[in-house]
Each structure stands twice: as C-alpha cells, then as structure tokens.
Amino acid sequence: MKRRTWLKGLAALITLPFISSYPRELAAGQQKSTKFKIDPITVTPLNKPHKAWRSLLSPEAYQVLFEEDTEPPESSPLNQEYRGGTYICAACYLPLFDSKHKYDSGTGWPSFTQPISGHIGTKRDFMLIWPRTEYHCARCEGHQGHVFNDGPPPRGERWCNNGLALRFIPKEEALPELRG
C-alpha cells in the first residue's frame, strides 16, 4: 500500500463527521467563502470526464491534474522560469497565472501571488487532516495546487502550484487555442 494512500484513508476517517456538510463548490459552479479573494468563475466549465484527458497528458501530469497527486518539490523546471508570459492549464490550456505574479516562495513549487480573475475554482481539502483551500482550473477542473495565507504583501496569498499542471507560454509566443 502506498504511504499516500494510507494517509488519505486515515485523513478520511478522521474527517468523516465533516464530509456530509462538505460543499462541492466546483460542481455547483460556485465558490465557498474563504479568507482569500476568489473571483466568481467567468469561464464555461467543460463537460468532459476526467479519464478523457488521459490520452492527452503524460501519466504524471494526469495523476496531478485528475487524481490530485502532488509532484516532488524542486522537480519542476518552471521553478526557474522568470520570463514574461502566461502560465496555462496543462490539460485545457486556460490561462491561469500571469508571470508578473510569480515569485520564489522557497517551497520548491511554482508560486504566485494571485491567479487570473475568474479562472480558478476552489474547494476545501481535508486530506492532511487540517483544512486547506485547494484550487482547480475552472474550465477542466484539473487540480492545480493549494492557496495559503503566507504570501508577500499586499494580498498575502501564496498560490502554490504543481509544475506538471501548468505550461508556460513566453510573452512573444501566441497562446494556444483552448482544447477540450
């Protein structure tokens, strides 16, 4: 049994009393009120099953995006990417972050101070026992990462993203067409 699977099972048992009241913000197209400034979703979600993305992504990217896995810290080349451009969802190509909001958080994952307005959906995550705010691409619902309140001023937010869930498009290149 994988250690992560065992930890998820343990966390599920501990959080069982909370699950019946656990909202499904993404499924409803709405977002739970949090201490973070989350803008209303402005894109139309795709009606595509997660398994349909499997043939379009590497096995590792699929695990991160649609099985909510986490890549190892310091494993993404995007940690060292500081050119001007746009970070898009690796599955559906929806723009999620502008490079001007990227910073080195020292965590080992690409981090941003804020997403592109209306392109992120959130939900509560209890997988590590204490609640966290998990965020997803608002279009394909691909898991991106978690947002924390220990980022730099003025917003104080750290949008900690899996590098496998993103693609970087330099400013001088055109953004690819959305896929889905």
Automatic annotation (TrEMBL):
<dbReference type="GO" id="GO:0033743">
    <property type="term" value="F:peptide-methionine (R)-S-oxide reductase activity"/>
</dbReference>
<dbReference type="GO" id="GO:0030091">
    <property type="term" value="P:protein repair"/>
</dbReference>
<dbReference type="GO" id="GO:0006979">
    <property type="term" value="P:response to oxidative stress"/>
</dbReference>
<dbReference type="Pfam" id="PF01641">
    <property type="entry name" value="SelR"/>
</dbReference>
<dbReference type="InterPro" id="IPR002579">
    <property type="entry name" value="Met_Sox_Rdtase_MsrB_dom"/>
</dbReference>
<dbReference type="GO" id="GO:0005737">
    <property type="term" value="C:cytoplasm"/>
</dbReference>
<protein>
    <recommendedName>
        <fullName>peptide-methionine (R)-S-oxide reductase</fullName>
        <ecNumber>1.8.4.12</ecNumber>
    </recommendedName>
</protein>
<keyword id="KW-0560">Oxidoreductase</keyword>
<dbReference type="InterPro" id="IPR011057">
    <property type="entry name" value="Mss4-like_sf"/>
</dbReference>
<feature type="signal peptide">
    <location>
        <begin position="1"/>
        <end position="27"/>
    </location>
</feature>
<dbReference type="InterPro" id="IPR028427">
    <property type="entry name" value="Met_Sox_Rdtase_MsrB"/>
</dbReference>
<feature type="domain" description="MsrB">
    <location>
        <begin position="50"/>
        <end position="171"/>
    </location>
</feature>
<keyword id="KW-0732">Signal</keyword>
